[in-house]
Amino acid sequence: MAATLRLEFLASRLAQQDFAATLLGVPASKLKAAYECPDCGSGPDIAHGRPGYVLDGGPAPLALSASRSSGWVLFAAIAHPGPGLRVGVDLENAAGKEFVGFDDVALTARERRHLDALEPGRRAQERTRLWARKEAWLKMTGEGLRVAPDSLEVLERPGLWDLQLPASADGRDLPAGLLAALAVTSR
Q1: Which residue, 45, 44, 42, 86, is CA-closest to 64?
Q2: Among 9, 97, 129, 150, which one has the highest count of C-beta atoms within 10 angstroms of its own C-beta?
Q3: Are 79 and 175 in contact (CB under 8 A)?
Q4: d(CA 47, CA 133)
Q5: What 8-state DSSP symbol labels residue 30?
Q6: pTM of the full structure
Q7: Residue 186, SS3?
Q8: Which residues, including other chains, have CB under 8 Å from residue 98's CB and lie 6 or more apart?
Q9: What is the distance of C-alpha 111 from the center of its chain?
Q10: Residue 7 CB: number of other CB atoms within 10 A?
Q11: Angstrom distances, CA of residue 84 to CA of 16, 81, 185
Q12: From CA 176, how far away is CA 162, in angstroms rounded?
């Protein structure tokens, strides 16, 4: 990993731990990372998948999701979630979603028709919005890209919302074309 990306990744992990600690009202030093992967399992030795923490020897009472894009990180969490309550969030930049073949592998037939009905100048933004919704949903379910994105319809899915991002954060302007989505469900 390039030095800049490595530092951004580390900073996002530290910010995530601080975010979780603040929500739980505990010092960040009391939380130990314990990610969950459907293939690899869960616990302190797993460093990928759904983020989570161990607190006082057991799972921290937190449903958590994170996403990074364009040097920014977005967190969503529910402290003390009810049984089966899950959250997924995704942050995407419209730059990079304009390449041949993306729509065929990422969008359903209905979503492609929806895009085709738009003015060409609005398609990149809408394509990114749909992709953010898919990523948020797949993070929330824990399936990730084990599910073919072109099989997941997100135009009108209950439990899935587009997020309105502020124009700036911490005194810095957010990049143009940055979009986010949130998914929440209880099973």
Answers
A1: 86
A2: 97
A3: no
A4: 24
A5: G
A6: 0.91
A7: strand
A8: 124, 127
A9: 20
A10: 11
A11: 22, 8, 8
A12: 16
Residue that the structure tokens 């957010």 belong to: 174
Question: What SS3 state is found at 154?
Answer: coil
Longest dimension (CA), the chain: 54
Helix axes 109-116, 120-141, angle to 10 degrees: 150
Q: Which residues of 109-141 are buried (b: 16+ CB within 10 A; e: fewer)?
A: eebbeebeeeeeeebbebbbbbbbbbbbbbbbb
Instruction: Give the pLDDT mean for 85-110.
Output: 88
pLDDT value at position 187? 65
Q: Name the more confident of 139 and 49.
A: 139
Q: Which of the four pLDDT bands, split at 50, 70 and 90, describes residue 109?
A: very high
> What residue type is 75 in one-letter code?
F
Tell me the residue ranges of DSSP E strands in 23-80: 31-33, 35-37, 41-43, 53-55, 58-59, 62-69, 72-79
CB atoms within 10 A of CB 158: 8
- 94: which 2 tokens? 């419209």
Q: Which two tokens stand for residue 12?
A: 């996002």
